[in-house]
Each structure stands twice: as C-alpha cells, then as structure tokens.
Design a protein that fits this description.
With 83 residues, the chain is mainly beta. It is built from 1 helix and 8 strands.
Length: 83
C-alpha cells in the first residue's frame, strides 16, 4: 500500500510523491526521485491528516517540510483528502 501525494504546482519539479504506507519511505518523487526517493527520506505519515504540509526526515535528522502545500492525498488510488 502506498500514499500518493500531489503538491501544489507553482512551476517546481517536485509535484508528486509516492510514500510507503507502513514505513513512510518516499518511493517515487517524479523528476526529483534522484534526490528524495533514495530510501533516506521518510515522511511523517501520522501528520499527513493534520494540515496541507508534508513533513519528513532525512536519515533520522531534524524535521523538515516541503515548501509547496499538499493539494491531494490518496491511498492506493482512493481519495482521502483534497484542497
């Protein structure tokens, strides 16, 4: 199972993420997979329903977040939330 996250498109390369449901590991990040889908970036899946900000950590480091807000959240194709 995997979350599909769509970020607000403001012309940036990162607009979609696929995140493992159980581990939170980013499995695909489209054009930015070389940077984020390396197995080192883990999304805080428990916070996905709090607001439109996607929080993550790299190698257990400090809390970070993607600059662009989430506009759509799905789980295996089933829509969970949309802005």
């Amino acid at each position: 199972m995997a979350y599909q996250i769509e970020l607000e498109d403001r012309g940036q390369d990162l607009i979609r993420l696929t995140v493992n449901f159980e581990t939170g590991v980013i499995e695909d990040a489209g054009l930015c997979s070389w940077l984020y889908a390396t197995g080192e970036h883990v999304v805080d899946v428990e916070r996905l329903h709090e607001d439109r900000i996607v929080h993550f950590r790299k190698n257990g480091g400090p809390d970070q977040w993607f600059k662009y807000p989430m506009i759509r959240l799905s789980l295996d194709g089933e829509l969970l939330a949309a802005a």
